[in-house]
Amino acid sequence: MPQRGRPPKSIEQHVREGTLNPSRHKAKVPLVIGGRKKPKCPRDLSKDGKRMFRALVADMWDAGVLDHADWPMIMVAARFWELARQAATTIEEHGQTYTVSSKSGYTEQRLTPAVKIYHDALREYQETIEQLGVGPSARARLAGLGVRSKAVEKEVPGLATLHVLRRKDDETKE
Prior knowledge:
Layout (H helix, E strand, L loop, with lengths): L10 H7 L29 H17 L7 H24 L2 E5 L5 E5 L1 H20 L3 H9 L5 H6 L3 H15 L1
Antiparallel strand pairs: 1-2
Helix pairs in contact: 2-3, 3-4
């Protein structure tokens, strides 16, 4: 059904006009700072880093939550992914452990430094993409704000109608 009446103003428009009332206007979409445009991939990233940067930009663009001001965070996530991949390659080549022997003849197995680098880089990557809104808990948080993916609506026409029908069916069962 088409929308009736005047279309609602965006939060950004209310901020520009000085008519934002925090008690009445709650942001359904995060405030845009740098504009809705795709950031360019930095040239100094490795092949894996560039691939991750482009994948994050594409996914966030399709979801409609990409802000150009987010490019440093996307670059940081791509750098941590790049570092994790380099550490994983080192682990594959040299193994996860090495043997240390003391003068008394005692030997022990220790983890290579690449293992710690790998774990730390993946943890930092995960924290960074959570801040960007990527991941299950971040998607649930965005869904609570009313953000819907544009890609899903394109791929599955009538999905919104299906959700409405399901809600009506659930209400009649109770």
